[in-house]
Amino acid sequence: MNFVILHVDVNNFYAACHTLFEPKLHEKSVVILSANDGNAIACSPHAKWLGIKRGTPSFDLLQWVEPFGITLFSASFPLYADMSRRIVETLAHFSPEIEYYSIDELFLKVPWESAEALGRLARQIRQRVLRWTGLCSSRIKLRTQASHFTCMREGFGRNEVVDWTISLF
Description:
about 35% helix, 4-stranded antiparallel β-sheet, MutS, DNA mismatch repair protein, domain I, 10 strands, Alpha-Beta Plaits, single chain, 3-stranded mixed β-sheet, alpha+beta
């Protein structure tokens, strides 16, 4: 049986974890500050739209709070670790072979049947992650190499690469 590696990435993970527990902030500008509240380490899409970037010092952000309704949060690494664990537990229902890339990005080894079946599986993964964790994964993609979609057949770490250009969601 052939396998492919799917890349699962959660959208704006740190900000999404906070807005999950404060739904009124879902469509608002949210900025996550470093552990010592020194600078921005993550932003919601609305904050990014305002031009706020990672690394912006927190004292520069204070002038944006009132006029733009920005909400600042101190980083909560235990919260992020817990939500990441929940995502992994959800993904484990689809494959026992999970490779961690970061707290919000994982690679998942799944059987290859057809492009249509893979697309259905990607939609199921995305829907279940949203339903079980409340977090939305971005497009689920085949593992990438260079600047185009690729997949690796027959397991992690193999160098046999096949290029694809299919959308999986």
